[in-house]
């Protein structure tokens, strides 16, 4: 029970240490930045030396298996588990795109082939008389622009026509 309590307290302290709105962190910005630096350093060290990290965990388990297991429960759900979840989501993101039979994937195929830029319709073909991107009535010039392109199984692309001469 002691390890479970210490593990939960460690998780709460970890969360408080990363919260910029925590009263202690607001009144002690130097300590807050130092804690952030220590957290990043620990994550980098853990990713650069997984064998050393595993050895340190094994040594902790051999020293006191009961406390190690009890502390592992809240930490697996919290600070340590976040890294595992992030790795799992990253693996899912890199997985090949699979479509169910009969699924209409034309938009996905267009994005894979052409990228997030404009598709199929040339800018000059959007308006008559080959005057696009210049509006003959006002003399303003409009150009295509892609603001956001988020890849994925269901890609999201925001496009617009932008006036080239801002006043």
TrEMBL record:
Residue ranges of domain DUF6531 in the record: 132-166
Bias (Low complexity) ranges: 84-93
Domain of life where this protein originates: Bacteria
Official protein name in the record: Type IV secretion protein Rhs
Source organism phylogeny: Bacteria, Bacillati, Actinomycetota, Actinomycetes, Kitasatosporales
Originating species: Streptomyces daliensis
Region of interest called Disordered, as start-end residue ranges on this chain: 84-137
Pfam families xrefs: DUF6531 (PF20148)
Biased composition (Basic and acidic residues): 95-129
């Amino acid at each position: 029970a002691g390890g479970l309590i210490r593990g939960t307290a460690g998780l709460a302290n970890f969360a408080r240490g990363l919260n910029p709105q925590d009263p202690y962190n607001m009144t002690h910005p130097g300590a807050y930045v130092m804690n952030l630096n220590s957290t990043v350093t620990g994550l980098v060290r853990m990713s650069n030396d997984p064998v050393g990290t595993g050895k340190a965990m094994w040594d902790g388990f051999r020293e006191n298996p009961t406390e190690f297991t009890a502390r592992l429960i809240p930490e697996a759900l919290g600070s340590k588990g976040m890294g595992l979840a992030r790795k799992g989501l990253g693996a899912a993101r890199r997985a090949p795109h699979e479509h169910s039979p009969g699924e209409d994937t034309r938009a996905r195929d267009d994005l894979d082939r052409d990228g997030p830029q404009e598709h199929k319709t040339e800018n000059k073909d959007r308006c008559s008389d080959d005057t696009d991107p210049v509006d003959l009535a006002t003399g303003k010039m409009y150009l295509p622009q892609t603001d956001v392109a988020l890849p994925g199984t269901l890609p999201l692309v925001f496009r617009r026509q932008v006036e080239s001469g801002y006043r």
